[in-house]
Design a protein that fits this description.
By secondary structure, the protein is mainly alpha-helical. It has a single domain (3-108), classed as Up-down Bundle (Four Helix Bundle (Hemerythrin (Met), subunit A)), CATH 1.20.120.910. It is 61% helix and 0% strand. It has helices at 3-32, 47-66, 81-86, 94-109. It starts with a helix and ends in a 10-residue tail after the last helix. Bound molecules: zinc ion.
């Protein structure tokens, strides 16, 4: 990944972070004003999603600063620019991402109530 790509993704990430900040503010404003229906807030994401996305953006920006952006956090291979274009916060290559999703979806099949068994 060259500098121009890196700078491009950095500004993409910053733009998205800015937009998420506004959405988060809109959500909090909506809550603090009485009589405002939650539906009035035209937020793209829920509060949790905004928080999650902000975290991954911070993480990606940190990786740009550290010089590790664009390499898979798991196997160390380069993440394709096409993949980063689609998802600038990606920290795993496609192969590792698919493997992770397979594991995640495997977990979701089991009942969440069984994670903490009753004693
Ligand atoms: Zn990988």
């Amino acid at each position: 990944m060259d500098e121009s790509h890196k700078n491009r993704f950095k500004s993409l990430l910053r733009e998205e972070r800015q937009s998420l900040w506004s959405q988060r503010d809109a959500l909090f404003d909506g809550k603090s004003h009485e009589g405002t229906e939650p539906g009035d807030v035209s937020a793209e994401y829920s509060e949790d999603e905004i928080f999650d996305r902000l975290q991954s953006i911070q993480f990606a920006l940190g990786r740009i600063a550290a010089g590790t952006y664009g390499t898979c956090a798991k196997c160390g291979r380069e993440i394709s620019v096409e993949r980063l274009e689609a998802q600038p916060t990606a920290c795993l290559c496609l192969g590792c991402q698919l493997a992770k999703e397979a594991i995640d979806s495997g977990h979701s099949h089991s009942s969440p109530h069984r994670i903490a068994p009753l004693s």
